[in-house]
Design a protein that fits this description.
Length: 966
């Protein structure tokens, strides 16, 4: 008989089943590594033969790995699709918008075609006319693919070769065994048993969600005359919970043999809340007992203590997991001996064993966040999440094939600078410098513009201003962050320039190969250059983990590198191919040693709860994302674009077993999740917790309906740390300020906002103007000042006559230092300055002359934007905590007037001394320890507004009440 199907009621007593003697020595292939571990934990030496995950056989290098894990092949297939799509566009068979949609979804489209090739469905069997435009194109592309050698599915090895592979897998289990000496001996015995036995039968255990490739292998083995024994857990009394197993395995059309020895699973004598909830769940599904029946009321008293947590969003969910994982890290650290702590060798698996709460998720979104929180624990961490990977990702985005130079994508440039790959300076130094001069790059789009505007323009202007004496009007430009030696040193500038030049050199080395262009690149030559670059950089990396990554990547590139060096494709093919496929491991397979596991891994892990309970280990099994949204999945949710359930039913009439089993598995996904939840609750001997995520973006979810029917109500709680750390304090000595000199403009800072005074004149030597808005105001004021000096006390008519000419002359002096602005921005600033000069300066003179230049007034404008602020205090009034400064304000109804002209000149000795004294009190914090930040309209012109949180805390900054006082 080619297929057999066996079921058992009690996984803890599987070795007592009437078929155990038949299967105990056979190669045993499980749905997941967790099931392998769980069965080893429960059965131990009673397992005589090989036991390993089914995918270890399917993805073996001599079975189907050349299809399932062949990056080079995937890139070639992707490139072939790009070529066909481009031809269809050129021949006007498809329109540009449709072509753009295809490019955006090309990976999904390729997955759809590969799926049907894996299922061995001929394109001629599909009626494309039943589908929409993209589905008709899918049928056409499938037909083309099935004619191509690069889409040919590998042949299954013969039975003799398969036995060799299975023996090799048994040896691999010995090599990788980290268990007890007894477990090592069991694995060694399994090698002998596998070698000695005829390779006539195998056991496939617990597989519900079959993949096409798994089915292809199993059906091929069946055609060789081998017996495939399917084995899974099944409780006959809960047939509806297990109905999906009947649906899937019914496709094989063989009778199901239920164990006759252990006919029913007997719950533990001391039934726990988890078991009670499972029983209630089963009874509701079987429709044997209604809510409120005596039996369900009895169980409810047991399971009502189970917590159903409500997480506001996926971030809060990840934070909860993170708290428990941090506690596990600390627990593991505390358990290590002094010698172990010294060698700095960290066992990820050991940390996970210290987790007091193991989470299983029905929604995989949380994996992404946890990989960011704990990248060192993610075995499948994407190559591009490492600094060197980010560097490559950015390099590919920067290269401009047409001009043979990099373009200026600011985000990509920053990724390169921060990667620590560049030799000129540390990444943090380069990135800090870039942020300080970021305004220079706002209109730089090409490498040529970088050379002319930054290398030739800005660098020379910086040198020129550095040599300018303080008496020169241009020296005021040193207050701008890009020209301030306190913000950006000459050394920093040269390092940044050299770093960007190095980025261009690396990109040129990688991409500027002979005869290459944007729509044609020789992959063989490119990968050769990439490997050479990696070899050069490998020794320069200080991070041991990154060095190991480079080694792994070089091995990976050997697989990507096409055997035929003439293989080529578009630059986009190369980008997409590397981005999606340069991984150490597949994202879908989180592995046994990961912080949060999927529902597919419940059935193995939960078997370990028996031993944990017996050893009194405090363990909580947490089943997460049990919402209606996450527990109910349609076939369309699982199919790659452009496939839909409706199209497949209309266009294809399945007759082959492989498709029927696979497609039934898709349709039973929701029932599988329900079964997995039941299984975890039923066989769990430890504590349990349930949870769901309330909000996904704009979508609101509800708890799983069956839980609501059973009376479990969700509760949103504040997520706190598992083990709160003991608070500590440190004492830092401080130097007493003995005196503060009186500077009128510094006291204006203290008058408006003491914290601004601290930042401007204590933390720095003076305010440094930064940000485009403040740069524009500063340019405007410098222009006003320069023109006012020339027309002050002059005849008003002459001033108006020559105003435009004078403004042009003064603008020409300033403009070379502001090349980072467009010409239109300069014109706009000139008009604003002219408007101020005409209405506030020229017309405000005495008689026929222009008002004389007032240095103090212009200094106030440059520092504070205005000389007078009228603040609405009808709702809240903020006061300066230092009385002498507060006394300088004036009330006018519900308005509070801050006039900077109220600050006394140095000759008013008494008041100046009082203000100096209060400034000293503030710095010494003798009257309080508050930073005394006062946020109001003046925050708009503060150079610290990008860093100080006080301005963000204001509900609104209104400039309508601010004006200049003549």
């Amino acid at each position: 008989m080619p297929f057999k199907i066996y079921t058992y009621e009690d996984p803890y007593q599987l070795d007592k089943a009437d078929f155990w003697d038949e299967i105990s020595a056979l190669p045993h292939f499980c749905s997941a590594r967790t099931l392998v571990n769980g069965l080893k934990d429960v059965l131990g030496d009673k397992i005589k033969g090989l036991i390993c995950p089914l995918n270890d056989l399917v993805d073996h290098e001599e079975v189907y790995r050349q299809w399932t894990d062949n990056i080079s092949l995937r890139i070639q297939q992707y490139s072939a699709f790009s070529s066909v799509f481009k031809q269809l566009l050129d021949r006007k068979k498809i329109q540009k918008p449709f072509h753009m949609a295809l490019e955006h979804n090309q990976n999904h489209f390729l997955e759809a075609v590969r799926l049907f090739i894996e299922l061995d469905i001929n394109a001629s069997a599909i009626d494309g006319s039943k589908g929409n435009t993209e589905q008709q194109l899918f049928v056409y592309m499938l037909k083309q693919a099935q004619k191509s050698s690069i889409f040919q599915f590998p042949k299954t090895p013969c039975r003799e070769k398969l036995k060799e592979i299975v023996v090799a897998l048994a040896n691999k289990e010995v090599d990788e065994c980290t268990g007890t000496p007894q477990e090592v001996k069991r694995c060694e015995r399994a090698v002998r048993v596998t070698q000695e036995q005829p390779f006539n039968s195998i056991v496939v255990h617990g597989v519900h969600q079959f993949t096409p490739v798994q089915l292809r292998l199993l059906l091929a083995m069946e055609k060789m005359g081998m017996t495939i024994i399917f084995l899974f857990n099944y409780q006959k009394k809960y047939s509806k919970i297990y109905s999906s197993w009947n649906e899937i395995y019914g496709c094989f059309e063989v009778p199901i043999h239920h164990d006759t020895v252990v006919r029913e699973y007997e719950l533990p004598t001391m039934q726990n809340p988890s078991n009670a909830l499972a029983c209630a769940l089963g009874e509701i599904c079987e429709d044997r007992n209604a809510v409120g029946s005596p039996l369900l009321r009895k169980w409810y008293k047991l399971y009502e203590s189970i917590q159903l947590m409500e997480f506001a969003n996926i971030t809060e969910y990840a934070h909860f997991v993170s708290n428990h994982f941090d506690a596990a890290i600390q627990s593991y650290s505390d358990s290590r001996s002094v010698m172990e702590r010294g060698n700095n060798v960290w066992s990820n698996a050991a940390v996970l064993r210290h987790l007091d709460e193991q989470v299983y998720t029905a929604n995989r979104d949380v994996h992404t966040l946890l990989k960011i929180y704990y990248p060192e624990y993610a075995k499948d961490r994407h190559f591009l999440s490492y600094p060197i990977g980010q560097f490559f990702s950015a390099i590919y985005r920067l290269w401009d094939y047409e001009n043979r130079h990099i373009i200026f994508d600011v985000n990509a440039i920053k990724e390169c600078l921060s990667s620590n790959i560049l030799s000129v300076a540390p990444g943090e130094v380069l990135l800090r410098t870039f942020y300080n001069v970021a305004i220079l790059f706002e209109n730089v789009t090409t490498y040529e513009e970088f050379q002319s505007e930054i290398v030739e323009g800005y660098a020379k202007n910086y040198d020129k201003l550095a040599a300018t004496p303080g008496t020169d009007a241009l020296s005021e430009l040193k207050n701008l962050s890009v020209y301030s030696k306190y913000k950006v040193t000459k050394k920093d500038i040269l390092a940044l320039i050299r770093a960007i030049e190095e980025i261009n050199e690396i990109a040129t080395y990688l991409f500027a190969v002979d005869n290459s262009r944007e729509d044609f690149i020789n992959f063989g030559k490119h990968f050769h250059n990439l490997e050479e670059f990696l070899k050069q950089r490998e020794l320069a990396l200080a991070n041991e983990q990154e060095r190991a990554l480079i080694t792994a990547l070089q091995l990976r590139l050997d697989k990507i590198k096409p055997e035929n060096s003439t293989f080529s494709g578009t630059f986009r093919d190369l980008q997409q191919g590397l981005y999606y496929y340069l991984k150490q491991k597949n994202d879908e397979d989180q592995g046994v040693d990961w912080i949060v596991k999927n529902f597919e891994q419940i059935d193995g892990d939960i078997l370990q709860s028996k031993r944990q309970f017996e050893k009194e280990q405090r363990k909580v099994y947490h089943f997460a994302c049990v919402s209606d949204r996450d527990m109910n999945m349609t076939v369309n949710d699982q199919l790659p674009w452009p496939l839909t359930d409706e199209f497949i039913h209309a266009a294809y009439s399945p007759i082959d077993l492989q498709f029927q089993v696979y497609y039934t598995s898709l349709g039973e996904r929701s029932n599988f999740l329900r079964y997995a939840l039941f299984y975890g609750l039923c066989y769990n001997r430890c504590d349990v917790r349930l949870s769901y995520v309330k909000q996904y973006g704009d979508e609101t979810t509800e708890p799983y309906a069956l839980l609501a029917i059973l009376g479990l109500a969700p509760k949103a709680e504040l997520v706190e740390s598992v083990h709160k750390s003991t608070p500590f304090s440190i004492s830092v000595g401080k130097e007493i300020t003995k005196g503060v000199k009186y500077d009128r403009y510094q006291m204006m800072d203290m008058f408006l906002c003491p914290y601004r005074f601290f930042l401007d004149y204590v933390m720095e030597d003076g305010p440094v103007v930064q940000g485009n808005f403040l740069y524009q105001k500063y340019f405007e004021n410098l222009l006003i000042e320069a023109v006012w000096k020339r027309i002050g006390k002059q005849n008003r008519a002459d001033a108006m006559k020559y105003l435009s000419q004078i403004m042009d002359q003064e603008t020409q002096k300033l403009e070379p230092y502001f090349k980072f602005w467009k010409r239109t921005e300069i014109i706009d600033l000139k008009l604003r300055a002219k408007n101020y000069l005409v209405h506030e300066v020229i017309t405000n003179g005495y008689g026929t002359t222009v008002m004389p230049y007032v240095p103090s007034h212009m200094q106030m404008r440059k520092l504070f934007g205005a000389a007078l602020f009228s603040i609405d205090i009808s709702e809240v009034e903020k006061k300066n905590p230092y009385g002498q400064f507060e006394a300088l304000t004036k009330r006018e109804g519900w308005k509070k007037i801050y006039s900077l002209h109220k600050l006394p000149k140095p000759d008013n000795q008494a008041l100046a001394d009082s203000l100096r004294g209060e400034a000293k009190e503030y710095l010494n914090q003798t009257c309080g320890e508050d930073k005394a930040a006062i946020s109001s309209d003046w925050c708009t012109y503060c150079v610290h507004r990008g860093n100080c949180m006080e301005s963000f805390l204001r509900s609104e900054i209104s400039m309508s009440s601010s004006r200049d006082e003549p």
